[in-house]
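With this grant's support, the team has encoded backbone shapes as discrete tokens. A representative record is reproduced below.
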Amino acid sequence: MSSAMATKIAIEYFDDLDGHSIDPQNAISIEWSWQETDYEFDTTTAHLDMIKNGRVPRATVLSKSRRTGRHTSNDARR
């Protein structure tokens, strides 16, 4: 007799700006570029409004973001 085991996978989202858990309905992934490097971070609509209104320093957003793509230097283009 074999016994089957059920597996349940739960996905939880976290705000990259403050580390708190995010309701999946309120989670937003933002992709952006700075100095020819692509970044991404996950946040809430409330934090996104704060970023857009300049209430979160660009350095904070940069330090909390993940590099996701290209990085081209001037030497690479020669």
Remarks:
- Residues 14-72 form one domain.
- The mean pLDDT is 88.
- The first helix runs from residue 45 to 52.
